[in-house]
Amino acid sequence: MEDAVREEQGFWSDGGGGESYDFYGVYEGHGGARVAEVYRERLHRVLVEEIEIENCSTGGVGGAAGGGGGWERAMKRCFAKVDEEVVSGGWCWKENGAVNTVGSTAVVAVVGGDVVAVATTPEL
Questions:
Q1: What's the whole-model pTM score?
Q2: Strand blocks (E) in 1-124
Q3: Which residues on adjacent β-strands are paired with residue 5?
Q4: Which residue has the higher pLDDT, 18 or 117?
Q5: Which of 32, 34, 61, 113 could bond to 70 as cystine, CB 3.0-4.6 Å?
């Protein structure tokens, strides 16, 4: 099977007795299950790092105006970092500098408080 799923209840809390957030992810591997497994094991952990960075830099994950831009930036950076881990970690076969053979698509959701943040990644 080349697909993987992840559910992490309370994967992040905004601290100080604030909201707790849950993570849901579905990953589809192409050309092998290993990339989907990497996403399943890493994406939610990297996302926590990016949420923490965004929270520190904007005064809140939703951004100063609460428009959700912080969630978008955190998700984009998270996908980019995990993609780079997959490529540099040797899980992708390369030919002439191009990634071939394996890849993944993913859809993830973070739910908590008044936030439902959903993101997808194109095939790696």
A1: 0.79
A2: 3-13, 20-30, 93-95, 98-100, 103-112, 115-121
A3: 26
A4: 117
A5: 61
